[in-house]
Amino acid sequence: MEAEAYRGYCLQSVAAAYDVVLITSDEPSWEVPYIKDCVVVPDPTDQAALSAASRTLADRYDLAGVFTWTEWYLFPVARLARQLGLPTTAPEVTQACRNKATARTLFARHGVPSAVSVSVRTRDEAHAAAARIGYPVVLKPAANAASVGVVRADAPDQLTAAYDFAGRAAELGVESRSVLVEEYLDGPEVSVECVTYRSETTVVAVTRKTVSAPPFFEELAHSVDASDPLLDVVSPAAKAAIRALGITDGVSHVEMRLVDGRARLIEVNGRLAGDMIGHLVRLATGIDLPRAAADIACDRAPDLTPTRSSAAAIRLIYPETSGTLTSLRFDGPTPCWLDKVHFQHRPGDQLVLPADGGDMFTARIGYLITTGPTADAAAARAESAHGRLVTRVEPAPTST
To answer: How does pLDDT run across 251-296, given as a tens digit for each residue?
Structure first.
């Protein structure tokens, strides 16, 4: 039910304004109250099956727009919209968003500040690329998401293991199975939440991020402040990246790092952000990004007028060690500033951290969301609430 936990607010928002018909890979469950109809397609990346499903729905309804918030479906859904004659960013543009090597090339061509990046297919190529770039370097799949397979190598003796780690995740890629070796950008990480309609981009919010210590890049916390002074700093780079890729319509999640106070692009995700960031944006600003995405898909100008000036934060919950989750509860009262507490694992589940071969799906226990007058206040409240969690993990026995 993790789709409900992380994307339920999106469907709820869109269904409040539109009749929704769904193409989904599983029989609907929690989605039922929000949809008018659906067609189940086991693999929505199968273009022929996706097109057939859309024809079924088009026979029943007058379709006004189509969009997805799922990373893996960006390209096939853009092709579907084109086939139906509905508004969309060009399919080849969504494909460029999915392939980080292509995106880096476009950034360089258009003068968008980014990381030095080399696409490799073997360990020897990875070692040669790292030697040219200079350590530390970051290795990542060219086409993946959610920081899966992203790892830092600080010296040549770490590179082979790092390449193998990234390579396992790269094998899951559709647009590319290459590994990228990239310059490490040393500075705070942020994302910029943008809305583009008919090639005009509005920067809606900045998300400040907390990531785990090297070598992995697990996202631990995010905060959004409607009055963040970084908005003026990061907006030009975010807009330039969107123009470079050719995005004309939709919501984008633009990731970057601030190096010596200047924005350097990491990647552009041509979709709503994950980790409940869209919900944080609404709590902080009142702007409804899922509704904006639906409006744009139907060729309607989105309402991006802020109605709040506040802040919100999410604290993602991870164990200190891999093992069996034996106890999990939230102790104490629920203050008005605690918006949500969600657990995606339960006692008895196995938790596997990236260091042990896992990822955010196997390691993350859940999240909690808080609000406050400023990002610092909301984040402090998130830490306070996190302190009330009782989690116990029985470490996996070590082999002797």
So the answer is: 999 999 999 999 999 999 999 999 999 999 999 999 999 999 999 9
Q: Tell me the fold of 310-395.
A: D-amino Acid Aminotransferase; Chain A, domain 1 (3.30.470)
Q: How far is CA 378 from the centre of its chain?
A: 21
Cα–Cα distance for residue pair 382/389, rounded to 1 Å: 11
Q: Which CATH architecture has domain 2-89?
A: 3-Layer(aba) Sandwich (3.40)
Q: Which residue ranges make up each domain of the chain?
A: 2-89, 116-183, 310-395
Task: Return the bridge partners of 369, or none.
Answer: 314, 340
The band of 146, judged by pLDDT with boundaries at 50, 70 and 90, is: low
User: What's the pTM?
Assistant: 0.94
- Could you tell me if 22 and 38 are in contact, meaning their C-beta atoms sit under 8 angstroms apart? yes
Arithmetic mean of pLDDT over the chain: 94
Distance CA(156)–CA(152), nearest Å, equals 11
Condensed to tens digits (0 to 9), the pLDDT of residues 58-94 reads: 999 999 999 999 998 999 999 999 999 999 999 999 9
Assigned CATH for 116-183: 3.30.1490.20
Strand ranges inside the chain, DSSP E:
21-24, 37-40, 117-120, 137-141, 151-153, 179-183, 189-197, 200-211, 219-225, 250-259, 262-269, 311-317, 323-330, 338-343, 350-351, 366-372, 389-395
- pLDDT tens for 191-250 read 999 999 999 999 999 999 999 888 988 899 999 999 999 999 999 999 999 999 999 999
